[in-house]
Design brief:
6 helices; 2 domains; about 120 residues; mainly alpha; two-stranded antiparallel ribbon; Diphtheria Toxin Repressor, domain 2; Arc Repressor Mutant, subunit A
């Protein structure tokens, strides 16, 4: 099942927040992404329906295996692409912003090639 860019961003945000907070709630996601809570609630419903997250009765959000796999893939891409762009002399904020867009569209083949190149180059 294909996952849209917005879903990937939500999953990545949940992953990042879960590393910083004891529990993740919709309000935390909304604050982090600077979105309205109502928009986040709709997105969480869709992610739940796709079995990428579970939400407890207390409102705590947890990634499922599939959600965590997607989030970790996107996060790895984001981190590596940001570092790569910075190593090329790109301003850190520009690199961060560009990596955020690139992480969703780059093929696995191209990403793997960049990853392998950076292992040897850096």
């Amino acid at each position: 099942m294909a996952v849209h860019e917005s879903a990937e961003n939500y999953l990545e945000t949940i992953l990042i927040l879960s590393k910083k907070l004891p529990v993740v709630r919709s309000v935390d996601v909304a604050n982090e992404m600077e979105f309205k809570k109502s928009s986040v609630s709709i997105a969480m419903k869709h992610l739940r329906e796709q079995s990428h997250i579970t939400v407890t009765k207390e409102g705590y959000i947890y990634l499922t295996e599939s959600g965590k796999a997607i989030a970790e893939m996107i996060y790895e891409r984001h981190e590596l692409l940001t570092k790569w762009l910075c190593s090329l002399g790109v301003d850190a904020q520009v690199a961060e912003d560009d990596a955020c867009r690139m992480e969703h569209v780059i093929s696995q083949e191209s990403f793997d090639a960049i990853k392998e190149f950076l292992k040897e180059a850096l």
